[in-house]
Amino acid sequence: MWGRFPLQRVFWALQLVIVLVPGAFFHLYATCKSIKQEDILQKSFYSGFYMFSVFLRIVLETVAFWLQIQLFGFKVNAIYMCDVGALEKKFVSRCMVPEHLEKTIFLIAMYTFTVITVVLCVAEIFEISCRRLGFLKNQ
Hints:
Blueprint (H helix, E strand, L loop, with lengths): L4 H28 L4 H6 L1 H29 L6 E8 L2 E8 L3 H34 L6
Helix pairs in contact: 1-3, 3-4
């Protein structure tokens, strides 16, 4: 029982860190090179590097989303069957999950945030592409 649910917290923390890494690398690079926002849109190397970091973020979010569904599903049940070992005897027992409703709500919130993040990243790639191709004017 205790092995599965603390894994959620570790997974979410790891997901947050991994998803933030591509953008952090780009912004660290841009800061070290003193790149301005206008340069990102005008120079193809910078915009390509930035779009790659956003695309990598989309891939990482999608993989994390898929892994979350595989590991946790969409609902945390109040009671589930678990293996309980007492000395050398193994038997199956019913285990209760504390705060299962809160964990289910948090799962749904994480799935919602992941979908919103992916949609915003796709919109960002679309906007940068349109600006590079001249369909949108830079302000």
